[in-house]
Automatic annotation (TrEMBL):
Boundaries of every FAD-binding PCMH-type domain copy: 7-188
Name of the protein in question: FAD-binding PCMH-type domain-containing protein
Superkingdom of the organism of origin: Eukaryota
PROSITE patterns: FAD_PCMH
Cofactor section: FAD
Amino acid sequence: MTMNITIRCAYMCGLQLRARSGGHDYEGMSYVSDDNGLQLRARSGGHDYEGMSYVSDDKKRPLVVVDLAHYRSIDVDAKTRTAWVQAGATLGEVYYNVFTKSNGTLGFPAGLCPTVGVGGHLSGGGLSAMMRKFGTAADNVIDAKILGTSGVVLDRQTMGEDLFWAIRGGGAASFGIVLAYKLQLVEVPPVVTAFSVYRNLRQNATNLVTRWQDIAPKLDENIFLRANVQLVIDRESIWNVNIQVQFVSLFLGNKSQFVSAIDTSFPELGLQAEDFTEMNWLESALFLNGMSGEGIEALLNRTPVYISSCKVKSDFVTNPITEKQWGEILRALRNLKEDNIIILLIMSPFGGIMDMIPESTIAFPHRKGNLYIIEYYTPWPGAEEQVSERHLDSMRKVYDFMTPYVSSNPRTAYYNYKDIDLGRTEGLMPSYFEARQWGERYFKGNFEKLAIVKGRVDPMNFFRNEQSIPPLYYLSKEAISSS
């Protein structure tokens, strides 16, 4: 059965269909349902931390999976610097094909993990090591093909600009199934430079991470400097553990330029010449994912390196956290070790062109005013309920602890790190006002427009999940006055 027939039959029969692009969805809402009907999901082939694209806890309702894993062709046109990429491809496959088919001159600004699927990543925004120069991945989408409830494949011209706006950062699963994206590729230099160094508390890590948040968002747009805060075993410490901050950076240029820029901007980091490594852009995709030394063909491997249960949350920081406050945060993380729980803080700076793009340009709204994003990540082995609950409870406590230090009114979050704790909507026709509790966190002022677009293209809410956009029916002043 062809895909358009599948969609049309599902719609006519009142079935529920969701699109999963192939990347990881931390709550599984692109491919699970709590509705009373037959569960029909679209799965593309990337990794999924919850595994709900192919299993269901509800034994009363059958789960049907439409597997799109092989819908993954990549057609690169180096002359026009564009590529059509089907939604089932992974980021690693995109990087490999774009770079090799352009003789090493082109790249694409998308996520650091190569096994993330293209479809979901681009539809939710897509942060990267090059976003400070080129914007999000979604900012560089110039066309798309989407299948809606009618079973007709639409492109940018036929879907209209409002829907095209919505599926770039607003999540495509609320509006249909994106089959492919046309990407605007970017020029990359023949040589880039990267480093990865670690500093612990005895090496003044608290002060360094405090300084980092002032420096990283203001660096040249060619520099991406991430800080990862993690707990490590340290027998020399009186607690037997230590806080370690990993500073990872990519510079779109050669070593001598990079050394000069870092020495001037962040001399406290104490980098040595041997800390910097030159490579090509494709090799940097391996480096940033901790895969240095592997051949570039490793980017074509669709199997995640690390597979475990996990929970993810996110925050945006708009004002610098003081050194004293960082000390309190690091102590709170260290104390979790007593329960054998580790929570990582993965922090990526904004600034650069991200400050220049208006919030309403596409549905992804997180722009000027954000210093950096924090991804909270806690993994654990197995799936035992008691162990899982301990980790989830600890994650929620850390998230609550961070409340005074992050954005507020609303406390914002990144849609690609879906968090069911922020709220959910249920039923066939959920309340727009109830959905605002999580919708405005993900989309800020763009949420209302997303709901209006949803009301126009999917008024019966066929494409739905626990955090999908609810339909909002809007009448213009002209329509009201003529009625």
